[in-house]
Amino acid sequence: MSSLGPTFGRGAMTNSWTDIRNTDLVLIMGGNAAEAHPCGFKWVTEAKAERGAKLMVVDPRFTRSAAVADHYAPIRPGSDVAFLSGVVNYLLSNDKIHKEYVRHYTNASYLVKEGYAFNEGFFSGYDESKATYDRSSWEYEIGPDGYAVRDMTLEHPRSVFQLMKKHFAVYTPEMVNRVSGTPQDRFLKVCEWIASTANGERAMTIMYALGWTQHSHGAQNIRTAAMIQLLCGNIGIPGGGVNALRGHSNVQGITDVGTLTAAIPGYLNLPTETEPTLESHLGKRTFKPLQANQTSYWQNYRKFYVSFLKSFYGAKATPENSFGYDWLPKLDVPYDCLRMFDLINQGKTTGLICQGFNPLMAIADSNKSAAGLAKLKWLVSIDPIETDTARFWENHGEFNNVDPAKIQTEVFMLPVTSFAEEAGSITNSSRCISWKWQAADPYHDSRTDVVILADLFNRIRKLYDTQGGKGAEPLMAVDWSYKNPAEPHADELLRELNGKALVDLKDASGKVTRQAGQQLASFGEMRDDGSTDGSMWIYTGVYGPSGNLSQRRDNSDPSGLGVYGNWGFSWPANRRIQYNRASADPEGKPWSERKKFMYWNGERWTGPDVPDYVPTIPPERATGPFIMNPEGVSRLWVRGLMADGPFPVHYEPFESPVTNPVFPKLKGNPAARIFERDRPSFGNAKEFPIVATTYRLVEHFHYWTKGVHMNAVVQPEFFVEMSEQLAAEKNIKHGDVIRVWSKRGSVKGKALVTKRLKPLTIDGKTVHYVGLPLNFGFIGEARKANPINGLTPPVGDANSQTPEFKAFLVNVERVATPVA
Amino acid sequence: MNIEVSRRRFLQLAGAGAAGTAIGALGFAEAEAQVSAHVKPFRLVQTKEARTTCPYCAVSCGMMVYAAPNKASNGKLEVVHIEGDADHPVNRGTLCPKGAAAIDYIRSATRVKTPMYRKPGTAKFEPVTWDFAMERIAKLMKEDRDANFVEKNAADTTVNRWTTTAFLSGSSVTNETGWVTYKVARGLGLLQIENQARI
Questions:
Q1: Can you tell me the distance from the alpha carbon of A716 to that of A782, in angstroms, rounded to the nearest whole number?
Q2: Residue A434 in contact with residue B53, Cβ under 8 Å?
Q3: Cα–Cα dist A314/A248, whole Å
Q4: pLDDT by residue (tens digit) across A477-494?
Q5: DSSP label at A377?
């Protein structure tokens, strides 16, 4: 998400599950959809069967997706940027790009100002002592008119296009082979197939998941993929896109709502302590267009911000008190989950509440997490099932070897309703908000999350009301005027997310366009004077004046393109394919009949979807299709929007078997999230010569289903997948119990010796790797196992802080041959 | 919008063999009555049907959940059957091995039935009342908040933050739950708030 936003403007899956049927070519890389998203993968199968689409899979393992692919290429874990940069180089050096798309819909023509440099893997502005970049040299050259300077011929040496050619030239097929271990012929076939879509006639979709995100350079993996799609003109068209296949059923919705350290719902920012006033916060976020006639939709940021504050503080938010801005907590530093567990481990945290979250299993370096949990004064688990975290204090022999008497943490397990015992809306990976209806009564004494949290909040506020205490004012200012304060209703909450008019809204002529109290139909109605509320602008429209559209169940598809525009409500504004104005050329005509989608009919933009564009802006105004960006175009060059560089670079994982073959001076992502006190916990290739990667199994979901009978039966225990060559070298036979250990921890399990993995030659050296399914632990019905994250390193991506679960170093040895 | 009604009606007709079907209208009423006497009513006729979403991955497949009253627990509606929603455009009735076994998640052996409490230094959980658990948690939170809430930082800027308690928010809860979670956690001044988006 932290790379799609800087590239396209919004950090979410660009197309939809059902749109995958429109594709001609699928690249699955950094994911394994057939195994991890089986019911979404069916649209790949459909495209193959109905359109003759081809499927390519690039993965360290010959996965279930690879098993049904038309082409498979192996790759070393953690080397995706090198591979994808090789594709970029192939497209550029062979002139296999969609030129008109690149010229008009990307920032290829923009000039980067003087002073930018790139040397031996480092961009200009690096401060080694702080391990961060000063990004000021990564900006555009600004002309006397205040707009960014362009060269539409793409010839200027400082144009993004020319800088790109230079930057990616090093990633030759030979270099890709040295870094990634992918045989050149297999790599080149991927390039040729991708190039076959760079024309507006054919489309490619890219499907990825945690195999790309869970690296210390994860955001740059996705960035490189997004650049490929832009060079081919595959964004905004049916069957195209960079499709982030997300994890939990509502992780998209919860990311939208923003229960993240630095977020406000709808991708607004929580203020930092350097922004003491509302104006100081908003003043940094004016999003002035960088070209004439551009939409730059974030210019409305202040309307969304004030509407949020009106929902949060209700009548107490007034223009006089800056709508309650002072009451909001202000950040000193961002507290992402790596920092959170670092603080817990240091004993600086008193209490932790886990709502449907099992951090002992899910966070990197479980031993560090376990030691930290024991330092908490109290822990609350709000979960339908018992989690390993809730029982971290319990002795489970070698799998959780602790002494309960020594752990002074007070622990609560609160029973919460399951998915079938509550009503509300869920937003799927492709942004479609759908209602679910309550099917059964709460199980035993369980209560809904809403009831539990309302109870807690009301009790705490009552304590402050009767006893007083620190920070009472901001706490009491929060609006809680629900019909039943003990149980806010889902319907009421979705209305609140949508927003309403607080007074009669009038247009310039004084005509009332929306009556006081009416729900807003669109975020275009939001105002910055406190006359509207709405806690999450991107969802506005889902519960407008015509009711709760997330409940719509009309599955008709008149265009036959899998749009399903009357099924639920897809944010923003019920658009199903984002940036869909790019499906037409600059004159507004479809790039080809074959890919016809949204087009200009002489009066307005039309087609099967809702235009992601002001519908009446004519093509001659040259307003770009990427309306969120001040440029109006997408970004091949992301300026200072990413912490680790305006272009991707191949960084080795923090634990790597080789020296970086491209830039030998680089040791890992120079801007990665790492805490100094964790550095001793990293291993080297001498002690730990084998690469490890973690993954999911189709029978299991994360750490829940080990407690679900059927799933524990069909996939009962942890195993270690390894090649025949590694097994022979280590004298391990299929079914032997083996030990896998890293610098941080150790796990035991049976060896699964398979042809699905093969050693690769990296920079002249044989590199082995093992695959570790992550779904096991010590609570549940499946056989007990050590948490797999006992092995993984506490280092995170520079932009998303996502831990590096997909590439680290271990060693393996045989423990015993089982009797049975 | 009336798909649900017509499906239900169809099932009732099919199960009970009621008159008024095309066959009945054609004069085969007696023959049909004889056939229907031997047809077992469709087993889900007596259940309550609801459309929901699979709790697992972000394909977010549509599910139909059937529940029936359980006499052993005061007639509470309990889930008796789950299947894929054939009307759902994304999954079209299919479910994966996880979704297909979701009923076992609802009745998991490790499902938490009642609030449980583990005292410091002990080796077991014991059941407690909701009131005990909630009052105790509220008190513990207030103690920490009163001790560590920061109204102004060193530069005298109002910061209203509480950084010594952390909240991990679930990503399979509804949007409405997410919003309440946000409101409660931020309203208290928490900055350590995270969900599964990063991992």
A1: 5
A2: yes
A3: 32
A4: 999 999 999 999 999 999
A5: S
Strands A719-723 and A746-754: parallel
Cα–Cα distance, A233 to A240 (Å, whole number): 9
Of the residues A186, A220, A247, which one is the last residue of a structural domain?
A247
The pair of three-digit structure tokens given for residue A619, joined into one six-digit string:
């093509």
The answer on A203 and A87 residing in a single domain is: yes
**Residue type for position A714:** V
Task: Name A730's Cβ contacts closer than 8 Å, sequence gap at least 6.
Answer: A738, A812, A813, A814
Residues 94-113 of B with CB under 8 A from A: 94-102, 104-113
Token pair 């936003």 in the structure block, residue:
A5
Angle at which helix A218-232 crosses helix A184-195, to 10 degrees, equals 50
Does an H or E element contain A100, and which? Answer: helix A99-105
pLDDT for B39 equals: 76
With 80 as the cut, is the pLDDT of residue B91 above it? yes
Interface residue of B5, B179, B188, B191 to substitute, partner A, most A CBs within 10 Å: B179
Cβ distance A254 to B195 less than 8 Å, yes or no, reads yes
Q: Which residues contact A509 (CB under 8 A, 6 or more apart)?
A: none
CB atoms within 10 A of CB B30: 9
Pair (A80, A225) in one structural domain: yes
Rounded mean pLDDT of chain A? 97
What CATH number does residue A220 fall under? Answer: 3.40.228.10
Q: How many CB pairs under 8 A join A and B?
A: 510
Integer Cα distance of A488 and A449 in angstroms = 11
Q: What are the chain B neighbours of A253 within 8 Å (beta carbons)?
A: 174-175, 178
CB-based contact (8 Å) between B28 and chain A?
no
The pTM score is 0.95
Phi, psi of A235 (to 5 degrees): -110, 135
Assess if CATH 3.30.200.210 describes domain B47-111. Answer: yes
Long-range contacts of B134-139 (CB under 8 A, 24+ apart): B134/A452, B134/A455, B134/A456, B134/A459, B135/A459, B136/A410, B136/A412, B137/A378, B137/A380, B137/A412, B137/A456, B138/A456, B138/A459, B138/A460, B138/A463, B139/A463
The β-bridge partners of A719 are A750
